[in-house]
Write a structure and sequence with these properties.
By secondary structure, the protein is of the alpha/beta class. The protein is 42% helix and 17% strand. The chain has a 5-stranded parallel β-sheet. The structure holds pyridoxal-5'-phosphate. Pyridoxal-5'-phosphate binds next to α2, α3, β6 and α8. One of its GO terms (molecular function) is D-cysteine desulfhydrase activity. This is Pyridoxal-phosphate dependent enzyme. Pfam families: PALP.
Length: 305
Amino acid sequence: MKHPLLAQKQVNVWVKRDDLIHPIISGNKWRKLSANLKACKNEGATQVVSFGGAFSNHIHALAFAGYTMGLDTVGIIRGEPEYASNFTLSWARYWGMKLKFVDRSTYRLREQSEFLQQLQQEFPSAKIIPEGGSNKLALNGVGEIISELQKQTDFDYLLCPVGSGGTIAGLINAADQQHKIFGISVLKQDGYLEQQIQRLLVDSTSCAQWQLFNQYHCGGYGKFKDIDLQQMLEIQNALNIPLEPMYCGKLFIAFFDMLKRDCFPKGSNIVLLHTGGLQGLGGLAQRRLIKEEQWHVPAFPKTGQ
Ligand SMILES: Cc1ncc(COP(=O)(O)O)c(C=O)c1O
Protein backbone atom coordinates (compact mmCIF):
# COMPACT_ATOMS: atom_id res chain seq x y z
CA MET A 1 0.00 0.00 0.00
CA LYS A 2 1.32 3.45 -0.89
CA HIS A 3 0.27 6.48 1.15
CA PRO A 4 2.27 9.45 2.49
CA LEU A 5 1.32 8.64 6.08
CA LEU A 6 2.97 5.21 5.88
CA ALA A 7 6.37 6.70 5.10
CA GLN A 8 5.89 9.33 7.81
CA LYS A 9 5.04 6.67 10.42
CA GLN A 10 7.69 4.27 9.05
CA VAL A 11 5.45 1.24 8.74
CA ASN A 12 4.98 -1.21 5.85
CA VAL A 13 1.43 -2.04 4.92
CA TRP A 14 -0.07 -4.60 2.57
CA VAL A 15 -3.69 -5.24 1.68
CA LYS A 16 -4.64 -8.89 1.28
CA ARG A 17 -7.08 -8.48 -1.60
CA ASP A 18 -9.52 -11.31 -0.92
CA ASP A 19 -12.08 -9.19 -2.79
CA LEU A 20 -10.23 -10.29 -5.93
CA ILE A 21 -10.68 -14.04 -5.37
CA HIS A 22 -13.67 -14.06 -7.72
CA PRO A 23 -16.05 -11.36 -9.05
CA ILE A 24 -19.03 -12.84 -7.20
CA ILE A 25 -17.98 -15.17 -4.42
CA SER A 26 -15.00 -13.57 -2.79
CA GLY A 27 -13.56 -12.34 0.46
CA ASN A 28 -14.35 -14.07 3.69
CA LYS A 29 -17.50 -15.55 2.13
CA TRP A 30 -15.48 -17.86 -0.05
CA ARG A 31 -13.12 -18.68 2.81
CA LYS A 32 -15.98 -19.59 5.15
CA LEU A 33 -18.21 -21.35 2.65
CA SER A 34 -15.63 -23.48 0.86
CA ALA A 35 -15.13 -25.96 3.73
CA ASN A 36 -18.85 -25.99 4.53
CA LEU A 37 -19.86 -26.79 0.97
CA LYS A 38 -17.20 -29.47 0.62
CA ALA A 39 -18.68 -31.03 3.78
CA CYS A 40 -22.16 -30.90 2.20
CA LYS A 41 -20.93 -32.78 -0.83
CA ASN A 42 -19.09 -35.35 1.33
CA GLU A 43 -22.15 -35.88 3.53
CA GLY A 44 -24.36 -36.36 0.47
CA ALA A 45 -26.53 -33.32 1.21
CA THR A 46 -28.26 -31.98 -1.88
CA GLN A 47 -29.50 -28.78 -0.33
CA VAL A 48 -28.10 -26.05 1.90
CA VAL A 49 -30.17 -23.88 4.21
CA SER A 50 -28.79 -20.75 5.82
CA PHE A 51 -29.82 -17.46 7.37
CA GLY A 52 -29.30 -13.80 6.65
CA GLY A 53 -30.67 -10.30 6.46
CA ALA A 54 -32.20 -8.95 3.25
CA PHE A 55 -28.87 -7.48 2.10
CA SER A 56 -26.65 -10.30 3.32
CA ASN A 57 -23.30 -10.92 1.63
CA HIS A 58 -23.47 -14.48 2.92
CA ILE A 59 -26.84 -15.20 1.29
CA HIS A 60 -25.64 -13.69 -2.00
CA ALA A 61 -22.46 -15.79 -1.95
CA LEU A 62 -24.21 -18.98 -0.88
CA ALA A 63 -26.77 -18.68 -3.68
CA PHE A 64 -24.00 -18.36 -6.27
CA ALA A 65 -21.88 -21.14 -4.76
CA GLY A 66 -24.89 -23.49 -4.65
CA TYR A 67 -25.71 -22.67 -8.26
CA THR A 68 -22.20 -23.46 -9.48
CA MET A 69 -21.82 -26.58 -7.32
CA GLY A 70 -25.20 -28.09 -8.15
CA LEU A 71 -26.61 -27.71 -4.63
CA ASP A 72 -30.12 -26.39 -3.99
CA THR A 73 -30.11 -23.42 -1.64
CA VAL A 74 -32.70 -21.99 0.73
CA GLY A 75 -32.27 -18.62 2.41
CA ILE A 76 -34.16 -17.95 5.64
CA ILE A 77 -34.42 -14.18 5.41
CA ARG A 78 -35.16 -11.76 8.24
CA GLY A 79 -37.86 -9.37 6.99
CA GLU A 80 -40.74 -8.90 4.60
CA PRO A 81 -41.23 -10.62 1.21
CA GLU A 82 -41.03 -7.15 -0.43
CA TYR A 83 -37.26 -7.43 -0.03
CA ALA A 84 -37.22 -10.19 -2.66
CA SER A 85 -36.70 -7.63 -5.42
CA ASN A 86 -33.74 -5.88 -3.83
CA PHE A 87 -30.28 -6.16 -5.38
CA THR A 88 -28.98 -8.97 -3.16
CA LEU A 89 -32.08 -11.15 -3.20
CA SER A 90 -32.74 -10.60 -6.91
CA TRP A 91 -29.36 -12.13 -7.61
CA ALA A 92 -29.97 -14.90 -5.05
CA ARG A 93 -33.24 -15.81 -6.78
CA TYR A 94 -31.55 -15.56 -10.16
CA TRP A 95 -29.12 -18.26 -8.99
CA GLY A 96 -32.05 -20.42 -7.92
CA MET A 97 -32.14 -19.80 -4.18
CA LYS A 98 -35.56 -20.28 -2.57
CA LEU A 99 -36.36 -17.59 -0.04
CA LYS A 100 -38.33 -18.01 3.15
CA PHE A 101 -39.10 -14.73 4.90
CA VAL A 102 -39.50 -14.78 8.67
CA ASP A 103 -40.28 -12.08 11.22
CA ARG A 104 -37.67 -10.85 13.67
CA SER A 105 -38.82 -13.00 16.59
CA THR A 106 -38.69 -16.18 14.48
CA TYR A 107 -35.29 -15.15 13.13
CA ARG A 108 -33.99 -14.84 16.68
CA LEU A 109 -34.51 -18.61 17.10
CA ARG A 110 -31.94 -19.39 14.41
CA GLU A 111 -29.43 -20.95 16.81
CA GLN A 112 -31.93 -22.83 18.99
CA SER A 113 -31.88 -26.60 18.62
CA GLU A 114 -35.68 -27.05 18.59
CA PHE A 115 -36.05 -24.53 15.75
CA LEU A 116 -33.17 -26.12 13.85
CA GLN A 117 -34.75 -29.58 14.25
CA GLN A 118 -38.01 -28.26 12.80
CA LEU A 119 -36.13 -26.78 9.87
CA GLN A 120 -34.31 -30.06 9.32
CA GLN A 121 -37.69 -31.82 9.15
CA GLU A 122 -38.92 -29.26 6.64
CA PHE A 123 -35.74 -29.67 4.54
CA PRO A 124 -34.70 -33.30 5.22
CA SER A 125 -31.90 -33.48 2.63
CA ALA A 126 -30.36 -30.18 3.67
CA LYS A 127 -27.28 -29.18 5.60
CA ILE A 128 -28.01 -26.16 7.77
CA ILE A 129 -25.25 -23.57 7.95
CA PRO A 130 -25.40 -20.79 10.55
CA GLU A 131 -25.77 -17.09 9.74
CA GLY A 132 -22.64 -15.68 8.10
CA GLY A 133 -21.30 -19.24 7.67
CA SER A 134 -19.49 -18.77 10.97
CA ASN A 135 -18.98 -22.27 12.34
CA LYS A 136 -15.96 -24.41 13.17
CA LEU A 137 -15.62 -25.66 9.58
CA ALA A 138 -15.27 -22.06 8.47
CA LEU A 139 -12.23 -21.59 10.71
CA ASN A 140 -10.10 -23.89 8.53
CA GLY A 141 -11.10 -22.09 5.35
CA VAL A 142 -10.24 -18.72 6.87
CA GLY A 143 -7.00 -20.15 8.28
CA GLU A 144 -5.73 -20.58 4.71
CA ILE A 145 -5.33 -16.79 4.63
CA ILE A 146 -2.58 -17.11 7.25
CA SER A 147 -0.70 -19.85 5.40
CA GLU A 148 -0.89 -17.81 2.17
CA LEU A 149 0.33 -14.69 3.98
CA GLN A 150 3.22 -16.53 5.56
CA LYS A 151 4.50 -17.27 2.06
CA GLN A 152 4.05 -13.62 1.06
CA THR A 153 5.27 -11.49 3.94
CA ASP A 154 6.60 -11.56 7.48
CA PHE A 155 3.76 -9.67 9.12
CA ASP A 156 3.40 -8.44 12.70
CA TYR A 157 -0.17 -7.16 12.59
CA LEU A 158 -3.23 -8.38 10.70
CA LEU A 159 -6.39 -6.27 10.78
CA CYS A 160 -9.87 -7.38 9.70
CA PRO A 161 -13.47 -6.25 10.11
CA VAL A 162 -15.59 -8.25 12.60
CA GLY A 163 -19.32 -8.94 12.29
CA SER A 164 -20.16 -12.37 13.71
CA GLY A 165 -16.59 -13.23 14.73
CA GLY A 166 -16.03 -16.22 12.42
CA THR A 167 -13.39 -14.60 10.26
CA ILE A 168 -11.22 -13.31 13.08
CA ALA A 169 -11.58 -16.61 14.94
CA GLY A 170 -10.22 -18.45 11.86
CA LEU A 171 -7.30 -16.01 11.64
CA ILE A 172 -6.45 -16.33 15.34
CA ASN A 173 -6.70 -20.11 15.15
CA ALA A 174 -4.12 -20.31 12.36
CA ALA A 175 -1.83 -17.47 13.47
CA ASP A 176 1.47 -17.83 15.32
CA GLN A 177 2.52 -16.43 18.68
CA GLN A 178 4.30 -13.43 17.12
CA HIS A 179 1.20 -12.33 15.19
CA LYS A 180 -1.16 -9.71 16.54
CA ILE A 181 -4.66 -9.98 15.11
CA PHE A 182 -6.71 -6.80 15.46
CA GLY A 183 -10.46 -6.95 14.80
CA ILE A 184 -12.51 -3.86 14.00
CA SER A 185 -16.03 -4.39 15.24
CA VAL A 186 -18.55 -3.08 12.68
CA LEU A 187 -21.33 -3.09 15.25
CA LYS A 188 -21.93 -1.63 18.69
CA GLN A 189 -21.13 -4.31 21.23
CA ASP A 190 -19.96 -4.74 24.74
CA GLY A 191 -18.16 -8.07 25.12
CA TYR A 192 -20.63 -10.24 23.18
CA LEU A 193 -18.28 -10.63 20.23
CA GLU A 194 -15.31 -11.54 22.42
CA GLN A 195 -17.43 -14.35 23.92
CA GLN A 196 -18.54 -15.49 20.49
CA ILE A 197 -14.91 -15.62 19.31
CA GLN A 198 -13.82 -17.51 22.46
CA ARG A 199 -16.63 -19.99 21.83
CA LEU A 200 -15.44 -20.63 18.27
CA LEU A 201 -11.88 -21.02 19.56
CA VAL A 202 -12.74 -23.39 22.37
CA ASP A 203 -10.65 -26.27 20.90
CA SER A 204 -7.91 -24.03 19.55
CA THR A 205 -4.32 -24.21 20.77
CA SER A 206 -3.39 -20.87 19.19
CA CYS A 207 -1.14 -18.50 21.17
CA ALA A 208 -1.66 -15.57 18.81
CA GLN A 209 -2.45 -12.25 20.47
CA TRP A 210 -5.73 -10.65 19.51
CA GLN A 211 -7.86 -7.67 20.38
CA LEU A 212 -11.14 -6.10 19.26
CA PHE A 213 -11.51 -2.37 18.67
CA ASN A 214 -15.03 -1.17 19.34
CA GLN A 215 -14.94 2.52 18.48
CA TYR A 216 -15.08 2.31 14.67
CA HIS A 217 -18.63 1.05 14.04
CA CYS A 218 -19.70 4.47 12.61
CA GLY A 219 -23.04 4.31 14.47
CA GLY A 220 -23.74 0.56 14.45
CA TYR A 221 -24.26 -2.41 12.19
CA GLY A 222 -25.10 -1.30 8.64
CA LYS A 223 -24.91 2.34 9.69
CA PHE A 224 -22.64 5.19 8.70
CA LYS A 225 -22.74 8.96 8.57
CA ASP A 226 -22.03 11.26 5.63
CA ILE A 227 -18.69 12.17 7.14
CA ASP A 228 -17.77 8.44 7.30
CA LEU A 229 -18.70 7.96 3.64
CA GLN A 230 -16.59 10.99 2.75
CA GLN A 231 -13.60 9.54 4.56
CA MET A 232 -14.07 6.10 2.99
CA LEU A 233 -14.23 7.64 -0.48
CA GLU A 234 -11.06 9.62 0.16
CA ILE A 235 -9.27 6.44 1.23
CA GLN A 236 -10.72 4.43 -1.67
CA ASN A 237 -9.58 7.00 -4.18
CA ALA A 238 -6.15 7.56 -2.61
CA LEU A 239 -5.40 3.83 -2.57
CA ASN A 240 -7.33 2.88 -5.69
CA ILE A 241 -8.94 -0.02 -3.83
CA PRO A 242 -12.74 -0.46 -4.00
CA LEU A 243 -14.42 -0.23 -0.60
CA GLU A 244 -17.96 -0.53 0.76
CA PRO A 245 -19.26 1.20 3.90
CA MET A 246 -20.40 -1.82 5.98
CA TYR A 247 -17.15 -3.65 6.61
CA CYS A 248 -13.94 -2.67 4.80
CA GLY A 249 -14.76 1.04 4.76
CA LYS A 250 -14.85 0.90 8.57
CA LEU A 251 -11.67 -1.21 8.63
CA PHE A 252 -9.73 1.34 6.59
CA ILE A 253 -11.04 4.30 8.63
CA ALA A 254 -9.95 2.46 11.77
CA PHE A 255 -6.51 1.67 10.39
CA PHE A 256 -5.71 5.26 9.44
CA ASP A 257 -6.96 6.52 12.79
CA MET A 258 -4.86 3.95 14.66
CA LEU A 259 -1.85 4.86 12.54
CA LYS A 260 -2.29 8.55 13.38
CA ARG A 261 -2.49 7.61 17.06
CA ASP A 262 0.80 5.67 16.82
CA CYS A 263 -0.74 2.29 17.64
CA PHE A 264 1.94 0.55 15.54
CA PRO A 265 5.65 0.79 16.41
CA LYS A 266 8.07 2.04 13.72
CA GLY A 267 9.12 -0.75 11.38
CA SER A 268 5.90 -2.73 11.85
CA ASN A 269 4.70 -4.92 9.01
CA ILE A 270 0.95 -4.63 8.82
CA VAL A 271 -1.60 -6.44 6.68
CA LEU A 272 -5.20 -5.29 6.18
CA LEU A 273 -7.57 -8.03 5.09
CA HIS A 274 -10.02 -6.90 2.41
CA THR A 275 -12.95 -9.21 3.06
CA GLY A 276 -14.91 -8.34 -0.10
CA GLY A 277 -18.62 -7.58 0.36
CA LEU A 278 -18.79 -5.24 -2.64
CA GLN A 279 -22.18 -6.68 -3.64
CA GLY A 280 -23.58 -4.73 -0.68
CA LEU A 281 -23.04 -1.55 -2.71
CA GLY A 282 -25.89 -2.65 -5.02
CA GLY A 283 -28.50 -2.49 -2.25
CA LEU A 284 -27.11 0.78 -0.89
CA ALA A 285 -27.27 2.40 -4.33
CA GLN A 286 -30.79 1.02 -4.89
CA ARG A 287 -31.91 2.64 -1.62
CA ARG A 288 -30.02 5.83 -2.57
CA LEU A 289 -27.91 5.63 0.58
CA ILE A 290 -24.80 6.11 -1.54
CA LYS A 291 -24.18 7.89 -4.84
CA GLU A 292 -23.75 5.18 -7.44
CA GLU A 293 -21.17 7.10 -9.47
CA GLN A 294 -18.77 7.38 -6.52
CA TRP A 295 -18.48 3.65 -5.74
CA HIS A 296 -17.74 0.43 -7.64
CA VAL A 297 -21.37 -0.71 -7.69
CA PRO A 298 -21.91 -4.10 -9.37
CA ALA A 299 -24.62 -4.63 -12.01
CA PHE A 300 -28.22 -5.54 -11.23
CA PRO A 301 -29.54 -8.78 -12.81
CA LYS A 302 -31.33 -7.97 -16.08
CA THR A 303 -35.05 -8.80 -16.19
CA GLY A 304 -35.68 -12.03 -18.02
CA GLN A 305 -32.06 -13.20 -17.53
C1 LIG B 1 -17.61 -8.38 3.57
C2 LIG B 1 -17.58 -8.84 4.98
N1 LIG B 1 -16.50 -8.58 5.72
C3 LIG B 1 -16.43 -8.94 7.01
C4 LIG B 1 -17.46 -9.61 7.63
C5 LIG B 1 -17.32 -9.98 9.06
O1 LIG B 1 -17.01 -11.34 9.16
P1 LIG B 1 -17.49 -12.18 10.40
O2 LIG B 1 -18.99 -12.20 10.37
O3 LIG B 1 -16.91 -13.53 10.14
O4 LIG B 1 -16.97 -11.53 11.62
C6 LIG B 1 -18.62 -9.91 6.90
C7 LIG B 1 -19.75 -10.61 7.50
O5 LIG B 1 -19.83 -11.75 7.61
C8 LIG B 1 -18.67 -9.53 5.54
O6 LIG B 1 -19.76 -9.79 4.79
